[in-house]
Amino acid sequence: MENPLLLFPQLNISASKDKSYYKVTKSAVMEEPNKASKAGAKQKRNRLSLLLQRSEYHESEHLGKPGNLTKASSVSPEEAVKWGESFDKLLSQKAGLDAFTKFLKTEFSEENIEFWIACEDYKKSKSTHELFPKAKTIYETFIRKDAPKEVNLDFQTKEVTSQNIEQPVITTFDAAQITVYRLMEQDSYPRFLRSDTYLNLVKGRNPGRPTLRRRSRSFTVNDFQGVRPDFTAW
């Protein structure tokens, strides 16, 4: 049998193979970046989705930790109604204090109730040795200028409190605590009683997840000039 190359001299099998290999190689080279690009985009989408899920989880966790916030099932409507009788009754009940704290967090003003709680704890100190470190912590957190959770105090009250820090006693923060108490009582407390958080508890409904609001205008100490604090209440 004669050699096919002799019968078809123009047929170049080697060249055909080279061209085919070139086409396959070129196709593979062009396809590889596309695969890498698609894989990279997919990874980015997965990472973005994961970040969003984590963000939503932490936000909901921050707003609704079961250990810190009041559950609707743990508060009866009758108990919630009593909180509306006076601000003191609200704070005297742990569930009421938790519900009010939850409300203040939606207004980004929880530093007021946190300061009040810190002062209550301070007055329970059993020895003078406990007073100095606690007083320093309270002052650095809530009183000093540009403190991380600075509360709104008039100049005179802040000055007196700052001086008392040098030799702290049980009554060191009384004036500041009463000022903050009055601000919450006359400003935040009425809004709390009108809030969905409180009204749902009174009606026995699940308050659900709170809605964050912009910090509303709080009364300043200048709004209550002339009102002398009643230290006998403490």
TrEMBL record:
Domain RGS positions: 86-202
Superkingdom assignment: Eukaryota
Example GO biological process: negative regulation of signal transduction
Keywords assigned: Signal transduction inhibitor
Pfam families cross-referenced by the UniProt entry: RGS (PF00615)
InterPro entries xrefs: RGS, RGS_sf, RGS_subdom1/3, RGS_subdomain_2
Keyword tRNA-binding part of the UniProt annotation: no
SMART domains: RGS
UniProt entry tagged with the keyword Zinc: no
Protein name as annotated: RGS18 protein
Origin organism lineage: Eukaryota, Metazoa, Chordata, Craniata, Vertebrata
